[in-house]
Amino acid sequence: MNDSDHGPGHPARAKRADARRNEKSLLDAAAAVFVSSGVDAPVRDIAARAGVGVGTIYRHFPTRADLIIAVYRHQVEACAEAGPALLETSATPYEALRRWIDLFVDFLVTKHGLAAVLQSDDAGFDALHSYFLDRLVPVCTRLLGAAADSGEIRSDLEAYGLMRGVGNLCIGADHDPRYDARRLAGLLVEGLRRPR
Amino acid sequence: MNDSDHGPGHPARAKRADARRNEKSLLDAAAAVFVSSGVDAPVRDIAARAGVGVGTIYRHFPTRADLIIAVYRHQVEACAEAGPALLETSATPYEALRRWIDLFVDFLVTKHGLAAVLQSDDAGFDALHSYFLDRLVPVCTRLLGAAADSGEIRSDLEAYGLMRGVGNLCIGADHDPRYDARRLAGLLVEGLRRPR
DNA sequence: GGGTAAACGGAACCTTACTCCGATAGTGGC
DNA sequence: GCCACTATCGGAGTAAGGTTCCGTTTACCC
Description:
Chain A is mainly alpha-helical.
């Protein structure tokens, strides 16, 4: 996991110092540019901001998806870990599900264009798509399962479908005050409640 | 509205015959290409299929949005007109709303990439966005209003938000058998029901 | 048939993604 | 401390798509 350690000279060749420095610069620059120009800002802009050539970006992050994943990894992890926690601290499993979806929505809508690129069928974003799904679907499955077991919701919707749906609802949620993604996601979850 | 009339020689100059022919060719070609390659197929492809130069496309349809609107105008109109009709033929206003949303979803998911481009924040698709909204939001408003008046659903969601939400849910619905947009849209509408 | 302006076509240009390779400069061995 | 070795760098080059521009063609009116 942690490759920044530089223990006593071991056979495994350590990454060169400039490479590590550049990777850090790139992550910082990308994060800044993503905030100001969205996640599909031109690669050149990110390279310029980091003070490196475009070749350096592609060497460290073969696809744009890899860069996006690296930038948001921490937050995705946090979201994933929040699932089980909410299950413990909420009054009911349904309540936990509702709150977890809120977290996910908040994360997505605050990242200009991330939701859009997440659902893009553009090959090359497969890695991004997969990362989110691999990390979050299991968490969602558990929340859905708990809420279904407690009889609060129907049990005929897969976590995958729900995640994609919620992700879609977040598209374009920034830059349109009339569109409230959080609200709609809430209604969608509300729709899961058992009829009656 | 109808500019294909060529009434008795009036001062208004009639459009040249080749221009009218090309416009027709372009609409046919675009429709065909949209089906096989999606609505964001390269402009050059459409021009080639129609047997005209790219300049001719831009002369007839200044933006891609104009072309898309022209191609799907009939179906959008049909959808808009189906609203009031459903209100008359359905058992309850809620039922009419549910069925109308189904129609809208079916329309969107069968047009590769249309939903995505509809929500794109890319300026230049404003016209497309506006056309759909101008034409369909009033219809949706009426359906929502009727269902709210009959007490079947809550009344605190604007038609605009619902339309955007449903449109978003349709993104990427083709080419992913595990994702059922119609189902999710149904759940969203279900979520509108008054609690108890 | 001839004059005129509408309409055509596609070369040219711009922007962005992504690749490739000569130049640069850390690193480990001495 | 110096050198050779090679990982890494930087950005010119290539490709693809969108949009514009203007010399050429052609329908229309008389």
